[in-house]
Structure formats: structure tokens, C-alpha cells
Amino acid sequence: MRWLFADPNHADEAAYVKETVAAIDRWWQAFQSKTTDIDKLFQSQSSFKLPQFMEDTLQAIHPGLMWEYGKALRGAGHRLVITPESQRFLRPMVRTILERAPKIEGWEFYAYRPAETAEQTIETVKARVGCDITGAVIDASVAPGRKVDLAFAFPGHRFKEETAMHSAFVATETLMGEQMLDTWIGRIELLDDESSEGRRPLPMERAQATVAALIRGSIDQLPATRAADISVEEGWATVKLDPPEEADDYPARSDLYVAATHEVELFQAMHGGQPFSSACHSKLHEMFCYLKIDAAEVDSSELVAFRSKFEDALNPLLVEAGVGGCIGGGTGLRYSYIDLALTDIKRAAPIIRKTLSQEQAPLRSWLLFHDDDYAHEWIGIYGQTPEPPQMPQVE
């Protein structure tokens, strides 16, 4: 269920938000009452059952919330990281949890596991995987989609492939930090004799600075202007995709088979299957979104005109308001799509809803988001717009 854009007039969503916020406040009250016990536990002066406490209180908010304690980063004391790990759609909720955190002397709260030293990384892999990766080396390279790919080798060690891959992932998360992992890291691989040819992998002590330099270089290459909107007549590319099998409905953009874009690399990042973060593609804090408009009742010969009607009405209003613009579009087996780059969703959303309503967009029309953190978020064009089709849940 969506969190950021939950409809207060929808009974189930309103109840969910109210109950969750109450659970968040109960968690902080419980945590604040147990800080002395937790501190004594860290000093080996208490047998306080911390895992059970966290399960009963923090995970009562949502079972997908994970946690990790450590030393404070900005001063004396402790830190607590609350993270959804791979369930990134929970990150908006985590932000709310931290926004409601009380000020507690000697405590710091974070939404991502921080980057650690090479020595700490070795110890973390020992604890979580059960093997020693001392001497590990890493090759880092910029990959399509503006990601940084990492390839690991473990000289002097003979690990099974599964163990080596697990070690590489834990080492990446620990050495680079969870936020960099989520936002910038692409593929994590193992180096072998064939794939290591021509590469110069670095020791872990140097890998952090190397990856940071690659990211800075990638950001420096981004244009200092906002994404080009549909009023720019030149530079368009047509992208054709293999059409999917016909189905009753299609989640996300799974029925898309042809699109027009100014930025092929951006389009590929959106559709490449890796986690997507708008931060990799804009210096101006643009968020890349899309309108999904049901065109099931539109004749195939009218699909371009159908989409253009909404683009032509919406784009100048977004540009004039300084909140973004339409940057492309596409056609699917059932839906029409309009790509957007928005700098202020709260200001843009009313413009989008009003314009599409005036242009008589179908009831099943939504503003959706490419970022994985917003995977469960959506804004209906009308108050009666139903929930969009969702990807099936993985058991």
C-alpha cells in the first residue's frame, strides 16, 4: 500500500496510515524507555533481550524493517540504523520513522548503513558470511545506466562461487555504505582469469576513493540544465522493444513496445532491469516519473494523437510553473505513456491532475515513478481512480 501519497479520503488507506503512525510513536516511546537497558547491554552489564524487543516494537510497524546498532558517527554514544534493505519501497516509511524520532542524548539515527573501513569490512564479512577476505581486490568501472560495476577477486582464498558472491555483496554494502549501494552500484561480479585480463583491481583500502571519483565524474558529465521537454524539436530517438505477450492487464510499463526519447541512456536505465535512482541522472534533483493512461478503448490509428493531446496541454503548464516538463512518451499494448522530469512533485501533481481531468483522461490514469524507493507510490488523476496494476509479489 502506498505511503507518501495515501488518500486521506480512502478508508483503508487512511486507517493504514493512522495505525502505522501510531505504531511508529509506540516504537519510539518503547525505545526511549529502554535506552538505559540497551546501553548496559552494550557494556555487558545487562541480559536485555534486544532482538525480541526490536521484533515486538520496531517490526510491529512493518516486518520488513531491519536494524543495526553501532558506535555514533558524530560524537560519543550509539547509532541505530533502521533500514528496509532490499525492500526499497519502504524507504518513504523509514523517512517518516526518523522524522518522528525524539532527541535522545547519546543517540544518532540513520536510514542507511554507513560506509566502513576495509578492516571493518573484513570483520563484517567474517561475522555474516563466515570467511576471511583479507587481501581482496576490487575492479570498479562505469557501466551503462550510469552505474558503477564492481568485480571482486580473493587472492590466496579458495571459496565456493556462492560463498564468494555472498562475500562480495556484503563487502560492497559495508565498504561503500548502503546508500551508495542502492543508488550507484550496478553489477557485483567475480573476477576470473578471463575477465581479469586488462584490468587493474585495487585493494579495498583504495576502492572507496576510486568509486567516489567515478561517481563524481559521472555527475560532472550531467548537463547543468533540466531535461529537454517535448517542445525541443530535434534530437529525438525512437526506441522499439519486443512486444510482450498479450494479457488482461500490465503492471508498470510492461506492455510498452515503442517510445520516443531525447535520452537513450536514461531510457535504458529505466528499462534495464537494475534498480533505478533519479539521482544518477540529474544534477537538478529532477525525479523521473511517468503518466500511465488507459488506452484500451482507443483505436490503434489514434494512439499517437491520443497521447499528444495530453502532452501538448500539460507540458507548457509544467514548464511555466517551473516544476518540470514532459520529456518523451510511448505506446504499449494497452496503455499510453508520457515521461516526465519533475523538480517538485507536490506542486506538479495538482497541475497534472487538473490538466488531464480537463482533457478527459480515462479514469484509469496515474502518475507513477521510476525510482525503486517509490515503487509502491502512485497518484490517481481522479479521486475515484483505482489502484494501478501491481507486479506480482515474490514469495
Description:
- With about 400 residues, the chain is an alpha+beta fold.
- The chain folds into three domains: about 10-110, no CATH class; about 120-220, no CATH class; about 235-380, no CATH class.
- Helix content is about 35%, strand content about 20%.
- It is built from ten helices and 14 strands.
- It has helices at about 10-40, 50-55, 90-100, 120-130, 160-175, 180-185, 205-220, 265-270, 305-320, 345-360, and strands at about 65-70, 80-85, 105-110, 135-145, 145-155, 185-190, 200-205, 235-240, 255-260, 285-295, 325-330, 335-340, 365-370, 380.
- The protein has a seven-stranded antiparallel sheet, covered by helices on one side.
- Helix 4 crosses helix 5 (about 160-175) and helix 9 packs across helix 10.
- It starts with 10 loop residues before the first helix and ends in a 15-residue tail after the last strand.
- The mean pLDDT is about 95.
